[in-house]
Amino acid sequence: MSTNEGDESRAPLSREELIALVSRAHFGSSVHDHAGAALAAQSRLPKRVAENLGAGLGQWDFFPEVSDIVDFALGYVPPTTPEELWALARAWASDDAAARPTLMTLIGRDILDHELRRIDVPALRELVDEPRPARARALRTELGLEVPPLPQPKAAGAARANRATKSAPAAPKREAPTRMPKPDFKPPPKAPPPPDAKRYRHPKFGEGVLRAQDGTGPEAKLTIEFASGPKTLLARFVTEILP
Questions:
Q1: Could you tell me if 67 and 41 are in contact, meaning their C-beta atoms sit under 8 angstroms apart?
Q2: Is 234 helix (H, G, I), strand (E, B) or coil?
Q3: pLDDT of 164
Q4: Which end of the chain is least crowded, N or C, by CB within 10 Å?
């Protein structure tokens, strides 16, 4: 399927075409809006979340594979009951508490924020809206959701750092990006060129190129393009010109 950049957001794309389009957007191409709209059109994720995923926008601690992004978006099933919304919250909290590099860690809170506009769960809404880290931790504990470990005190952390420097060099400090870092872009492999068309010789019409074939064997009907125009002949009346 071929699409122009202007209609990629409207035409249904295959998984491979979505991966190629989202890769271009994340790599820095000018198709951010098209990629976001295309992914949102074919996903049941909240629209804004899917658009940001497809365009490569957001605050990220790690860069997920583009194929994982597309598969997550295409496979997402929205919750329809409070129980299913609680299950989504538990999945997000579990991955977040363990700092696992998953899409739920990155955007689970955003998904909850949008889904809570459809399904009213006041306790979860209070958690998602809470800006204070300490209060958010307390709410997660009260709700039975997993909580990330507390950061180590500075004194203990400094003591461990001093011991570590004796055995290994300190790792360089990394700042969290404000936008997804650009991946190494790997364009999808090109399709192999089609094989050369078969050529045939006829005692009257000369040499020609095969355009269509119906059947097999000597009684097959061959449509051959000769210099005088196309002719449909039985295979037994022509001779194939081998390369």
A1: no
A2: strand
A3: 56
A4: C
Q: Which residues pair with 240 in a beta bridge?
A: 200
Query: Residue 235 gets which letter from DSSP?
Result: G
With 80 as the cut, is the pLDDT of residue 239 above it? yes
CA distances (Å), 225 to each of 51, 81, 233, 241, in order?
50, 64, 11, 14
Angle of the 103-115 helix axis to the 82-97 helix axis, nearest 10 = 150
pLDDT in tens, 5-45: 444 445 689 999 999 998 888 877 777 888 889 999 999 99
Q: What is the pLDDT, as a whole number, of residue 190?
A: 75
pTM of the full structure = 0.59
Residue from 14, 3, 58, 63 nearest 39 by CA: 14
Matching residue, tokens 């299913």:
84
Q: State how far the alpha carbon of 73 is from the alpha carbons of 47, 66, 67, 145, 223, in Å.
A: 11, 11, 10, 24, 47
